[in-house]
Amino acid sequence: MERHELMRLLVGDDAPSQAARVALAGGAEYIVLEGGLRLSDSHAGIFAIRLRFMQRKGVETLGWERAVRLLRERAQPIRIGYITASDRSWIYTAFLTGDGSELVASAGVRRPDGEPEEERAQTPL
């Protein structure tokens, strides 16, 4: 999938879609998986487990509860895309319809170390 196509899908007014779109506009790395389509409600279970794990670890997330709910509501094949911010501080997940024509949900997670690479490089030891 081309960058502009993915950006076009991330037009929602929810925070993770907006942040992922800004990241893409800023040159973020991304990949949209082509194979291995699964039903969205199956993904919802997996991502609900991941959400609970992230919450226990205190990892900052964006939109995960909403994404899990939306995935459960729409039992359809989905494709997943990952967007990594240029400074590598956030990773966004885009859940797309199986044909890649529509965004089902999106979510973000702050990298476990919690700060961009530039900030780590400037932090005194």
Structure characterization notes:
- The chain is α+β, with helices and mostly antiparallel strands.
- 42% of the residues lie in helices and 26% in strands.
- It contains five helices and six strands.
- It has helices at residues 3-9, 15-25, 40-57, 64-73, 117-122; strands at 29-32, 38-39, 61-62, 77-84, 90-97, 103-110.
- Strands 1, 2, 3, 4, 5 and 6 form a six-stranded antiparallel sheet that branches.
- Strand 4 (77-84) and strand 5 (90-97) form a beta hairpin.
- Helix 1 (3-9) packs antiparallel against helix 2 (15-25) and helix 3 runs antiparallel to helix 4.
- The longest helix is centred in the middle third of the chain and has 18 residues, at 40-57.
- The radius of gyration is 15 Å and the shape is globular.
List keywords for this structure.
about 120 residues, alpha+beta, six-stranded antiparallel beta sheet, 5 helices, disordered C terminus
In short:
42% of the residues lie in helices and 26% in strands. The chain is an alpha+beta fold and 125 residues long.
SSE series? HHEEHEHEEEH
Largest sheet: 6 strands, antiparallel
Beta-strand proportion: 25-35%
Low-confidence stretches: 118-125
Question: What is the average of the pLDDT values?
Answer: 86
SS field, number of helical segments = 5
Helical proportion, percent range = 40-55%
What is the C-alpha radius of gyration, as a whole number of Å?
15 Å
Number of strands: 6
Strand-pairing-aware structural class:
alpha+beta
The rounded distance between the terminal residues' Cα atoms is 42 Å
Based on Cα principal axes, name the global outline.
globular
